[in-house]
């Protein structure tokens, strides 16, 4: 069964249409990479999926219709969005940021358990719990943003450019952790990423978005082997 089914998704800002009928499906527990040039609409696609902007078309998660619902309602249905720039509350402590991630949940014991689990993925956060989020390094802030998203216990995790501004070593570690989360929690992941090598390294399938349309879809291997993708996004051939 597909976890996420998107059909003829249209979205934009005011009168400016950015997505012109996007179709994609992501299988339950899979990682799907969205590649594409600047301005293609990748961020807009994630915003449309999480309800940050209004959309037309069909978006279904495990059979439940998300289209037209508010961002808050979509979060309650298990969609966690880690935006580009991370959306961390800098003056708040690491712990408060993590707890904010559980804003739609009840059940104190389960929340405490999840905090512990997140520390196993991101041990560095445990040592920084009482620090202001703004004092963390870029990599730690990205970890915090993903940790906060996990506090929602998401069924679908949307990651926008997680590697942005991070050193290669930090980025590789971050992607390793995303893969571990996906495997251990069975969380379905949609990741928008400029670093196509990294994204295709953890994804099962990928789509290339250009000027608001999906122009190429396939397994990560098929996309990696595509001549055009290799030239445009992987920097060889
Ligand atoms: P990038 O990698 O540069 O972030 P992207 O593929 O994520 O690119 P989007 O950020 O989705 O692309 O932008 C797609 C188009 O929508 C661009 O033409 C952009 O100028 C426009 N756009 C993005 N955000 C807004 C906004 N808040 N208001 C109006 N137009 C916007």
UniProtKB/TrEMBL annotation:
<dbReference type="GO" id="GO:0005524">
    <property type="term" value="F:ATP binding"/>
</dbReference>
<keyword id="KW-0813">Transport</keyword>
<dbReference type="InterPro" id="IPR027417">
    <property type="entry name" value="P-loop_NTPase"/>
</dbReference>
<dbReference type="GO" id="GO:0015658">
    <property type="term" value="F:branched-chain amino acid transmembrane transporter activity"/>
</dbReference>
<protein>
    <submittedName>
        <fullName>ABC transporter ATP-binding protein</fullName>
    </submittedName>
</protein>
<dbReference type="InterPro" id="IPR052156">
    <property type="entry name" value="BCAA_Transport_ATP-bd_LivF"/>
</dbReference>
<keyword id="KW-0067">ATP-binding</keyword>
<keyword id="KW-0029">Amino-acid transport</keyword>
<dbReference type="Pfam" id="PF00005">
    <property type="entry name" value="ABC_tran"/>
</dbReference>
<comment type="similarity">
    <text>Belongs to the ABC transporter superfamily.</text>
</comment>
<dbReference type="InterPro" id="IPR017871">
    <property type="entry name" value="ABC_transporter-like_CS"/>
</dbReference>
<keyword id="KW-0547">Nucleotide-binding</keyword>
<dbReference type="InterPro" id="IPR003593">
    <property type="entry name" value="AAA+_ATPase"/>
</dbReference>
<dbReference type="GO" id="GO:0016887">
    <property type="term" value="F:ATP hydrolysis activity"/>
</dbReference>
<dbReference type="GO" id="GO:0015807">
    <property type="term" value="P:L-amino acid transport"/>
</dbReference>
<dbReference type="InterPro" id="IPR003439">
    <property type="entry name" value="ABC_transporter-like_ATP-bd"/>
</dbReference>
<feature type="domain" description="ABC transporter">
    <location>
        <begin position="4"/>
        <end position="236"/>
    </location>
</feature>
């Amino acid at each position: 069964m597909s976890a996420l089914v998107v059909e003829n998704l249209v979205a934009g800002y005011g009168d400016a249409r950015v997505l012109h009928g996007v179709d994609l499906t992501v299988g339950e527990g899979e990682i799907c990479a969205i590649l594409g040039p600047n301005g293609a609409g990748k961020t807009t696609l994630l915003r449309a999926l999480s309800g940050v902007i209004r959309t037309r078309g069909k978006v279904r998660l495990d059979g439940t219709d998300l289209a037209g619902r508010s961002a808050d309602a979509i979060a309650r249905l298990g969609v966690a969005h880690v935006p580009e720039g991370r959306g961390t509350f800098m003056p708040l402590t690491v712990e408060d940021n993590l707890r904010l991630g559980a804003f739609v949940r009840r059940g104190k014991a389960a929340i405490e358990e999840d905090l512990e689990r997140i520390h196993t993925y991101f041990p560095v956060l445990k040592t920084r719990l009482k620090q202001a989020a703004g004092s963390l390094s870029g990599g730690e802030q990205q970890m915090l943003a993903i940790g906060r998203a996990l506090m929602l216990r998401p069924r679908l995790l949307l990651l926008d450019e997680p590697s942005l501004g991070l050193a290669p070593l930090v980025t590789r570690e971050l992607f390793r952790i995303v893969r571990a989360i996906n495997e251990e929690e069975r969380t379905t992941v949609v990741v928008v990423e400029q670093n196509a090598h990294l994204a295709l390294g953890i994804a099962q399938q990928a789509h290339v978005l250009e000027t608001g349309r999906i122009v190429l879809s396939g397994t990560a291997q098929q996309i990696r082997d595509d001549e055009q993708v290799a030239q445009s996004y992987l920097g060889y051939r």
